[in-house]
Write a structure and sequence with these properties.
7 helices; alpha+beta; 22% strand
Length: 289
């Protein structure tokens, strides 16, 4: 039976024990043996089934379970729970890419991470992400093949539950989940002021180092992608996106990793576009035209 509500105490057998367990894991920082990562819990697996069903509806490959990304995602959820904060920069000062690499996921060209605080059920977390353009784009990125999911609980936190999903673009021994036959109908969870979400992504060493005025990982028509501009700093956004072809990109989003403020660009709508330029190596979420 799932722990569906924040007041539930199945994962909180006393606050002191819960916090103690979190701290013991955080001190380690990363797993000692990769094979020791336990299987996904019922709720963690249910969330990945929801994401995979959603990807299948959009013609994308379902994600396998990565042992290293599962360990990284669990550590991150527990780190956020211990420190009662939502941030993609963990308590050791690591970015998502640095944290995933520390857990053994080191060969990726593309990483992604979505986090959530305040939803007690996988359906609640998924519904919030599906209705957020940034999070939705990460879940529907064509280049990802594996993922790891982590869920943690802090009874003393106004968030209660903390979720992390880490995504990667190469298979490091992932285990396939059962393929869903249909998209489960999620139960919407109202958001509140404390139920914040955030998004981060990172570009790894697989991207070319020399500038060639290219937008890497151009989106397919009607699909979302995480793209990276490989050209001069301060390039006009429209000009940079045109590297994928005229009309190939309909919209683009960028989030400042420090302020968590979004900027956006829409083809033919300069009045409501505030993503004016792109710098070399800047990652953006793009929608194919």
């Amino acid at each position: 039976m799932r722990n569906c509500r924040r007041p539930g105490v199945l994962l909180a057998i006393g606050a002191a024990l819960a916090v103690g367990a979190f701290v013991s894991l955080l001190v380690a920082g990363q797993p000692q043996v990769r094979g020791q990562t336990p299987p996904l819990s019922e709720d963690e697996a249910a969330l990945l089934v929801l994401i995979n069903g959603y990807r299948l509806e959009h013609g994308l490959t379902p994600l396998k379970v990565s042992p290293t990304l599962s360990a990284a995602a669990r550590w991150m959820s527990e780190d956020m729970a211990v420190h009662n904060r939502l941030s993609h920069t963990d308590s050791l000062g690591r970015s998502p890419a640095e944290r995933m690499a520390a857990f053994g996921y080191t060969q990726a060209s593309l990483w992604g991470e979505i986090i959530r605080g305040g939803s007690g059920t996988p359906e609640g977390a998924f519904e919030v992400w599906r209705n957020s353009p940034g999070h939705n784009a990460v879940m529907l990125t064509d280049g990802f093949v594996v993922a790891g999911v982590g869920k943690a609980y802090n009874p003393q936190s106004p968030y209660g539950w903390f979720w992390t999903v880490d995504f990667g673009d190469y298979d490091d021994g992932g285990i396939p989940l059962p393929t869903p036959t249909r998209m489960p109908t999620p139960t919407p969870t109202p958001t509140s002021d404390v139920e914040e979400q955030a998004l981060a992504w990172a570009v790894g060493p697989g991207w070319p180092q020399a500038h060639d005025d290219t937008l890497h990982n151009c989106p397919k028509a009607g699909k979302w992608a995480i793209s990276v501009w490989d050209g001069p700093d301060g390039t006009d956004t429209g000009q940079a996106l045109a590297a994928c072809g005229a009309g190939a990109v309909a919209a683009a989003y960028h989030i400042d990793p420090h302020t968590q403020v979004w900027s956006r660009w829409f083809v033919g709508w300069p009045a409501i576009s505030n993503l004016a330029t792109l710098d070399s190596g800047q990652a953006i979420i793009t929608l194919g035209g």
